[in-house]
Amino acid sequence: MKNLKEIKSKILELTREYSVQAHSSFRPGSDELRSEWKMGHPIPYAGRVFTEDEVEAAISTTLDFWLTLGNEGSAMERELADFLGAKKCLLVNSGSSANLVAISTLTSHKLPYKKRINVGDEVITVAAGFPTTVAPIIQVGAVPVFIDADPTTGNAKCEQLESAYNPGKTKAVMMAHALGNPFELLKTIEFCKKYDLWLIEDNCDALGCSYTMPKDIANKFGFFQNSPGLDEGPNNIVRWTGTWGDISTQSFYPPHHLTMGEGGAVNIINSTKLAVIAESFRDWGRDCWCPSGIDNTCKKRFDWQLGDLPKGYDHKYTYSHLGFNLKPLDIQASIGRIQLKRLPEFIETRKQNWNYLRSGLKKSEDFLDFALPSHATSWDEEKGFTWDDSGCRTECSWFGFKISVKQNSSFTRTDLAKILDENKIGNRMLFGGNLIRQPAFMELKKNRPDAFRSAVDTEGSDKIMEDTLFLGTYPGLTKEMMDFEIHTINNFVFS
After folding, report:
1. Looking at domain 340-493, does it have CATH number 3.40.50.300?
2. Is 256 one of the annotated active-site residues of the chain?
3. Boundaries of CATH 3.90.1150.10 in the chain?
4. Around Cβ 300, how many Cβ atoms within 10 Å?
5. Which of 110, 93, 89 lies closest to 321, judged by CA?
6. Of the listed 256, 315, 321, 375, which one is catalytic?
């Protein structure tokens, strides 16, 4: 009879063989084993990209049958933290949950009253975004204050932050790096430092983006080191997005830069205290910080006296916050660990795909506007981007290829979207458009007039809502797919 090791080895061997045959359409676009795309087949705007390595990892972990977060989760948390250069990364079950844990962390009674977000306090965000960046602000009893978005970058107009500031009420800024394009972190950090505000970076669309700041400016704000693996020379500091603020969030939903199926992460950049609080909110609100399956890490399990509980009440069942249970499964983490190894390749492919689409659609630029990175002033097919005089630069890990229909065009965004849909070319709106126009927010305003407010006119967000969509840049695209997209759009524009 074969022993367990031999049986498992055979299962995994067959798993790899099965995956190569069954999942060839999900391999990277450049992979020689990827199945050929055929005319008439759908072109997704995003999707899973994996090989037999991820499938083997998932099956191997399943056979061990540790179902909740365990060793694989702990390992991925360490590896993600090492990649980013963060103090702590906590895996959660979605990017939306990551945003909820991040903002909840800043409501903790363990923070000074003047710093923590209390009911009725305000958090500045951007009108053009994804609902789950904003919903957690409302869910913890705070008030979102909207600034406008720039239709060119898709990001917040950070020069409007001052207009949104409310002395004694504003406690934080929470915004997303839209479509893998970093927002203007210099202006945002200047503002947050000036008023001693928290900065939460929603990095769900932007894993692998970087932001470069002149060294003398970065040092002034307390940034002295580059992120691991990044270097822009002796006169600059370059860091991954998600590491410039106090807390950041990630999503590992299939369309994002790497996938665990569902899943996400909360990244604590510098503060051990915030890390402990965030873990408490993720893990039922408990005071204990022991990992799953481990007891008495503090060596005082039965020595604490907290709240009105009797001295010696089991620390494993002592709760300091009104928390949640938002952990993913260890199986998901095992997939994520393999995906994390692919991340540099994925980042580069997203950049290449964006450039390929942009070059191919150059002939349509009299009728279509395309995204520019923050701090970029123009794009040239040969020279690439030109930059403003701030000294800052952004390196995008594009989540999508943004297209806006110009006012002088004879067609609308909806016309373009219909043609794309007819040709089975996946496309999406820029998420919620202008969130304050969404039914949920209009109903909220009707029932609770003080639930949120706009600090400025949101005409830029309206323009995004009316004129903009995006295509995919994900690593599963082949040149044949992108050529068909380019042909379809150019043909439509000039028909």
Report:
1. no
2. yes
3. 340-493
4. 10
5. 110
6. 256
